[in-house]
Amino acid sequence: KFCVLIGEDESAVVCPVIDVIEWNTFEYLGNAGEPQIGGFDWRLVFTWHVIPEREQKRRQSKTDVIRSPTMAGGLFAVSKKYFDYLGSYDTGMEVWGGENLEFSFRIWQCGGSLEIHPCSHVGHIFPKQAPYSRAKALANSVRAAEVWMDEYKELYYHRNPHARMEPYGDVTERRLLREKLRCKDFRWFLENIYPELHVPEDRAGFFGMLKNKGMANYCFDYNPPNEHEVTGHRIILYPCHGMGQNQFFEYTSQNEIRYNTRKPEACAAVDSGTDYLTMYLCQDNVQNIPENQKFVFREDGTLFHVQTQKCLQAESNSYNGNPAPLLRPCSNSEYQKWFFKERS
């Protein structure tokens, strides 16, 4: 079937549905349900998502191919002629990581299409521990950002400050390839191929480490247990490390405190009857933002919670032995004064 699709459209790159083979038992864990499509977050980490409604409407039947913004990598079929035309793999990348997103961006931006065929299933063993080094994954991602993401690469660097310092080699030839193929810009990719991805505002002075004046060198910190449990946990204060990731927050023009380094994005909220901050899913529709997720960042540095009319205050030993931001009656205390710093 792959060959038929590629024969009909040489610019199509087709991926199978990836099933899991249990690494220690070789049990085949097939998935009879609807496939998911590939995406990414602003750390440039590949993610899986449900098929959006717009794509469901485009398809005529359940056996039609599914357009996907990105691929997981490694498992795909492409015409050799078209693969060479697109520039094959970036030979400046090494071993593992980043190449799947780079190739995905290139396919779409340079006139191709990336599709998942729901009738094709390939089993894949995800080893408990990789038998090779992944030390070059960061440099590979930086190469992808530098060649294909235009000004949006700054959203990646804001969340990964260390990536800005990573040596990534010479990308002159890859940029010339993009120019030669007359590829579209990254804004086009976001608007037309992946409109479901929230694009952060990252307004100057309103993103980065969220620090407290009274509790020096302590930052908002949110570290969910795994990629599948991004919401439902509380924010603590932890010594600032300047590495972004779990200490990267953004204050939006919609009065949200967003944790948007990964998908799905989480917003700080105050549960009824508590004074702690708990993270819940953000609402992309402005009209749907719950009142308990709205904070006003006032000129004096206080974070004023609209619903309770209280301010966030840094307090020590307040949650499982850690300092944490809690709602308290507003005052002039330095422990109620907050500010953003992009990096340490």
TrEMBL record:
Q: Outline the extent of the Ricin B lectin domain.
A: 206-341
Determine if Transferase is one of this entry's keywords.
yes
Pfam families noted in UniProt? Glyco_transf_7C (PF02709), Ricin_B_lectin (PF00652)
Q: Which UniProt keywords apply?
A: Disulfide bond, Lectin, Transferase
The cross-references to CDD domains, in alphabetical order and at most eight, read: beta-trefoil_Ricin_GALNT12
| InterPro entries listed in its UniProt record | Galactosyl_T_C (IPR027791), Nucleotide-diphossugar_trans (IPR029044), Ricin_B-like_lectins (IPR035992), Ricin_B_lectin (IPR000772)
Gene Ontology MF: a single term: polypeptide N-acetylgalactosaminyltransferase activity
Transferase listed as a keyword: yes
Q: Which protein are we looking at?
A: Ricin B lectin domain-containing protein
Q: What is the lineage of its organism?
A: Eukaryota, Metazoa, Chordata, Craniata, Vertebrata
